[in-house]
């Protein structure tokens, strides 16, 4: 496992469009998952200890952001060849077991992750109503273990985006497992 830190937010960068299969059998696009006031795109996977450590809080925050007009989706872009826990069947199992309040999408070709510039799991991209990037930070101060009383950085930032159209200027990068790219 290689720990990777996300780049700083490229404010104003437009959200790349996509069309991907969801664990519930639907085929969804960017337009299908966006909310009235913005969109949170999360690159996650099933095997990563960083994702496992924040999964419950991620579910809580995505559900709460829906009330603020922020749509959410999670995208799994890892190559499951060497990480069978990240297979589509296991994605379906995890989404159902944890009652994901957002679509869990499979980026089999890894093209979507490349267009977004995703580098790790978790990697968060928060967009305003105009679908321009306003947040590229972490969920909170947790790493592989929850930090008691940690400030809800991603939630607070996305509420700010929903209400003002702009994310906070100061953002702390997310850290996680590198995306498992397919061999060329």
UniProtKB/TrEMBL annotation:
Secretion signal, residue range per the UniProt entry: none
Single annotated GO MF: antioxidant activity
Matches recorded under PROSITE patterns: THIOREDOXIN_2
InterPro entries tied to this protein: AhpC/TSA, PRX-like1, Thioredoxin-like_sf, Thioredoxin_domain
Source superkingdom: Bacteria
Pfam families, per database record: AhpC-TSA (PF00578)
Gene3D superfamilies attached to this UniProt entry: Glutaredoxin
PANTHER family assigned to the protein according to its UniProt record, in alphabetical order: OS07G0260300 PROTEIN, THIOREDOXIN-DEPENDENT PEROXIREDOXIN
UniProt name for this protein: Thioredoxin family protein
Organism: Acidiferrobacter thiooxydans
């Amino acid at each position: 496992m290689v720990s990777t830190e996300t780049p700083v937010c490229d404010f104003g960068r437009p959200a790349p469009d996509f069309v991907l299969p969801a664990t519930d059998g639907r085929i969804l696009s960017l337009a299908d998952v966006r909310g009235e006031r913005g969109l949170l795109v999360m690159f996650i996977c099933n095997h990563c200890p960083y994702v496992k450590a924040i999964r419950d809080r991620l579910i809580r925050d995505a559900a709460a952001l829906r009330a603020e007009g922020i749509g959410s989706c999670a995208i799994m872009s890892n190559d499951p060849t060497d990480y069978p826990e990240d297979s589509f069947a296991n994605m379906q199992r995890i989404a159902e077991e944890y009652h994901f309040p957002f679509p869990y999408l499979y980026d089999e070709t890894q093209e979507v992750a490349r267009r977004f510039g995703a580098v790790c799991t978790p990697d968060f991209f928060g967009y305003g109503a105009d679908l321009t990037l306003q947040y590229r930070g972490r969920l909170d101060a947790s790493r592989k273990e929850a930090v008691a009383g940690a400030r809800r950085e991603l939630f607070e930032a996305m509420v700010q985006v929903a209400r003002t159209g702009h994310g906070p200027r100061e953002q702390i990068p997310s850290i996680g497992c590198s995306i498992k790219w397919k061999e060329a």
